[in-house]
Predict the 3D structure of the following.
Amino acid sequence: MGAETGLRERKKQQTRAALAEAALRLALEKGPEHVTVEEIAEAADVSVRTFFNYFPHKEHAILGRNPEHLERALERMRTAPADESPLTTMWYVVRDVLRDLESDGELSRRGELIMSSPSLLYQLMLSSIDDERQLTAALTERMGLPPGSTRPALIVSTAGAACRVAMELHKAAPDRPVAELLDEAFHLLAQGIDTAFGPDNQKKGHS
């Protein structure tokens, strides 16, 4: 039973990867707005019905959205060591997702495509908001705080910003790996971006 389950999961992963690869290739060739679900399914050698078992629409396929990334992130958050800081947990979560995204070798081209397409950018924004909402809820629970607390929401949102900054800087300086830039961003966050900003200086600023 275990072997059969493992085989099914591998086949699902392969099918999802094939659809995402076909969607990206076609979007790069024709432009995202000119690609259809039928073309993506045909290129991946599956039915349209199978396509919709993996993606709700073509934009998610082009983006390479994989719900397993969020599931693993939530699990990592739930099982994080008690003495691990929330920001460190988010660092591990973002680093793991980034590693998965880099594994297909299309991170840069996909990023450029997204930035050139309003529809893809909009879908990415919607997806990111939903991801952040779920991650914030999980982090809030882990920290033992009531819903609506500022700190977990800010940690999750800042972690997402750090990832976006790292990817943008990588475009400007391709010789620097995204992972290295991401680590640098999180170290700055952990230290406090504005080291001069503190209670004493706040008082001076308002005096």
